[in-house]
Amino acid sequence: MWSRCVRIALLCSALGVLVALSGCGASAPRVDFEAERRATSAYAVGPGDVLEVRAWKNEALSHRVTVRPDGFITIPLVGDIMASGRTVMGIAEEIANQAARFYHEKPVVSVEVAELHSYRVYVMGEVSRPGEFTPRAQITVLQALALAGGFTRFADPDEVVIVRRDAHGERRIPFVFEDVVGQGDLRGDLPLQTNDTVVVP
């Protein structure tokens, strides 16, 4: 019930942004797209995701585990590790550090996302099929727009924004359609984080 309320609140907030943007003709702020891409290219694991944990020459630590609703995974010998909200590299490093207590040498551990279940993005506004989408891999803005059926004839492609809520608060990142599609500059076609909302005025 709480999760449903949170999703509804996110959609309502995005609609509020849409209304505000429709009456605003101000130019989009400059964005360091390379920095944004680096920050979002590493997927943050969430509850329900299935992780493949592999330890080199160590079958005891090698397991496929599901992230529990409380965000933890359980690894033999190591115990519970917080996985939700972290990258696979961060999870692998903690498993290796914790397991080092039981071995003469620190084990070499890798973690991959085997199944993606917590990832969801929203596309709102002037698209053919607005709503929530749960792809099985991280997608970019263009891919999200394609999932939503593309623009309607009333859309303003030059005013598309990504609404993102993270540790820095709520941000609005412009998607410069002409640069990405017209000029082929894919730096602005950013990977979307879970719960990002693409707003099309």
UniProtKB/TrEMBL annotation:
<feature type="domain" description="Soluble ligand binding">
    <location>
        <begin position="120"/>
        <end position="175"/>
    </location>
</feature>
<dbReference type="InterPro" id="IPR049712">
    <property type="entry name" value="Poly_export"/>
</dbReference>
<protein>
    <submittedName>
        <fullName>Polysaccharide export protein, outer membrane</fullName>
    </submittedName>
</protein>
<feature type="domain" description="Polysaccharide export protein N-terminal">
    <location>
        <begin position="39"/>
        <end position="113"/>
    </location>
</feature>
<dbReference type="Pfam" id="PF10531">
    <property type="entry name" value="SLBB"/>
</dbReference>
<dbReference type="InterPro" id="IPR019554">
    <property type="entry name" value="Soluble_ligand-bd"/>
</dbReference>
<keyword id="KW-0732">Signal</keyword>
<dbReference type="GO" id="GO:0015159">
    <property type="term" value="F:polysaccharide transmembrane transporter activity"/>
</dbReference>
<dbReference type="InterPro" id="IPR003715">
    <property type="entry name" value="Poly_export_N"/>
</dbReference>
<dbReference type="Pfam" id="PF02563">
    <property type="entry name" value="Poly_export"/>
</dbReference>
<feature type="signal peptide">
    <location>
        <begin position="1"/>
        <end position="28"/>
    </location>
</feature>
